[in-house]
Write a structure and sequence with these properties.
This protein is an alpha+beta fold. 15% of the residues lie in helices and 37% in strands. It has two helices and 21 strands. The strands form seven sheets. A three-stranded antiparallel β-sheet has the order 1-2-3, with no helix packed on it. Strand 5 and strand 6 form a beta hairpin. Helix 1 packs antiparallel against helix 2. The chain starts with a helix and ends with a helix.
């Protein structure tokens, strides 16, 4: 009988561990920087893994966050009240966003931060040697994205605008129409059209702009030299450099959101867990660790196990009485 009790308590402990781990891994969004990855959880808190050389992963105190963005060496969070927080390298002032308000979406580039306001105008701060922050005249914008040295925006009429360094024509978007979402890579730009097809311009040295055959796409993401597309069936496609396995996403399924870091790719699954492939020298792909319970959560597991164990023993005694 004692052995049976031990077995029951062991089963209850495993059940508690799995229950808390599942809650711990309840991600709704991920964003990849050069060497770090940021994850937004359903409760509005944020976690980050990978390179923390500039404090870009110091997001543990954040709360009430609705969206996150990751630059090369800084991290940005949009709060539910329309204000913005940022941590990481601030050499060009890209983290000086404390005065921003009325923001509905944020984007982060190499050394800049972009904010889309509720009225469709745009603000930007940070490195501006190529004019990548010159967005003051923009209006009617519905989505923004930032590349390495350029900034792009989707207008309410489906057209696209861009400012910044025009390497390989990455800012030449005048002919684009019916755009619903864009992503900025190192020196290239990707656009998702309303019919689920994709267009891309700019540097194509690694084939990262070879997206003409794609269809049924719901979201696009761009890394340094690779492009990711999330399909309507939850599968993922990729083109471009695969030097670190960042394009090895063919087996993924049940994906609801994707991001492309410098040389890694991350996806959020429908169950709130995270998958990742690619360059992992800093642990930027190690999101499985975020599903391991913390000390507080271990306490919850033990408490659940004890309570359920006591309940089992009481029931057994009543049956024997």
């Amino acid at each position: 009988m004692k052995r049976l009790t031990v077995y029951l308590i062991g089963i209850l402990f495993v059940f508690g561990f799995l229950l808390v781990a599942a809650v711990s891994a309840n991600f709704v969004m991920v964003e990849g920087g050069s060497g770090h990855t940021v994850g937004l959880k359903s409760d509005g808190t944020v976690v980050a893994v990978g390179d923390n050389g500039y404090g870009q992963c110091n997001v543990g105190s954040w709360s009430g966050i609705e969206q996150v963005a990751a630059g090369s060496w800084h991290t940005v969070g949009l709060k539910s009240d329309g204000t913005v927080v940022a941590v990481g390298w601030n050499g060009y002032g890209s983290c000086d966003v404390s005065s921003w308000s009325g923001i509905e979406q944020v984007a982060a580039g190499s050394c800049l931060t972009v904010g889309l306001k509720l009225d469709g105008t745009v603000v930007a701060i940070g490195r501006n040697d190529s004019g990548q922050c010159n967005v003051g005249s923009w209006s009617g914008i519905e989505q923004v994205a930032a590349g390495y040295y350029h900034t792009v925006g989707v207008k309410s009429d489906g057209k696209a605008v861009a400012v910044g360094q025009n390497v390989e024509g990455c800012c030449e978007l005048e002919s684009w129409t019916n755009i619903v979402q864009m992503a900025g890579g190192m020196y290239y730009t990707v656009g998702l059209k309303s019919d689920g097809t994709v267009v891309a311009v700019g540097d194509n040295g690694y084939g990262q702009c070879n997206v003409g055959s794609w269809s049924g796409i719901e979201q696009v993401a761009a890394g340094c030299h690779h492009t990711i597309g999330l399909k309507s069936d939850g599968t993922v496609v990729a083109v471009g450099s695969n030097s670190n396995g960042q394009c090895n996403v063919g087996s993924w399924s049940g994906i609801e959101q994707v991001t492309a870091g410098g040389f890694h790719t991350v996806g959020v699954k429908s169950d709130g867990t995270v998958v990742a492939v690619g360059w992992n020298i800093y642990g930027q792909c190690d999101f499985y660790a975020e599903a391991i319970p913390t000390l507080t959560e271990w306490g919850i597991i033990i408490l659940i196990t004890v309570i359920m164990g006591i309940g089992v023993m009481i029931l057994r005694k009543r049956r024997l009485a």
